[in-house]
């Protein structure tokens, strides 16, 4: 059987936190995990803004801040794909931001056990585009006893599977 996909252009603003674009007859993603804690004094500011004379305060005092457990699963690649005739065509892939544990994968792949843990404090937040920030004060207070401990647990699994 012959199958053809014509996709043209692929345009993406942002790929973040254990995600991606996967183009192939066979992609196997297992055990992906993302944990995020983000404090922001201002938040996200879009394009063409002017911010003046403000105070931003982030106060995040904890005894134990953001404990995370990573239970990722690693699956070994013992996959047998069929000999189908599948063509995937595109002109271009344009991605403005590829961030934290993210991918663009073209062709057959097995990607297991991807994990990311993020803890962040932003006084201003995130600015996107052309913005003006003037005469401002940002204060971050993060007096933790234990800050973002991560416990890793890796589970190994080795299947034999046929796809197609």
Provide an overview of this structure.
- By secondary structure, the protein is mainly β.
- It has one domain.
- The chain contains no helices and 22 strands.
- It has strands at residues 2-6, 9-15, 20-23, 27-30, 33-40, 44-45, 49-52, 55-59, 64-65, 68-75, 79-81, 85-89, 92-98, 103-106, 109-112, 115-122, 126-127, 131-134, 137-141, 146-147, 150-157, 161-163.
- The strands form 11 sheets. Strands 1-12 form a two-stranded parallel sheet. A two-stranded parallel ribbon has the order 2-13. A two-stranded parallel sheet has the order 3-14.
- The protein is flat, with a radius of gyration of 21 Å.
- The relative contact order is 0.40.
How are the SSEs placed, and which strands pair?
Blueprint: E1 2-6, E2 9-15, E3 20-23, E4 27-30, E5 33-40, E6 44-45, E7 49-52, E8 55-59, E9 64-65, E10 68-75, E11 79-81, E12 85-89, E13 92-98, E14 103-106, E15 109-112, E16 115-122, E17 126-127, E18 131-134, E19 137-141, E20 146-147, E21 150-157, E22 161-163
Parallel strand pairs: 1-12, 2-13, 3-14, 4-15, 5-16, 6-17, 7-18, 8-19, 9-20, 10-21, 11-22
Q: What about the largest sheet?
A: 2 strands, parallel
* Biggest sheet, spatial arrangement of strands: 1-12
* Number of strand elements: 22
Q: How many separate structural domains?
A: 1
Q: Looking at the structure, what is the overall shape?
A: flat
- Please tell me the overall pLDDT: 79
End-to-end distance, in Å?
11 Å
Tally of helical segments: 0
Could you tell me the radius of gyration in angstroms? Answer: 21 Å
Note the beta-strand portion: over 45%
Q: What is the N-to-C order of secondary-structure elements (H for helix, E for strand)?
A: EEEEEEEEEEEEEEEEEEEEEE
SS content category: mainly beta
The level of helicity is under 10%
Low-confidence stretches: none
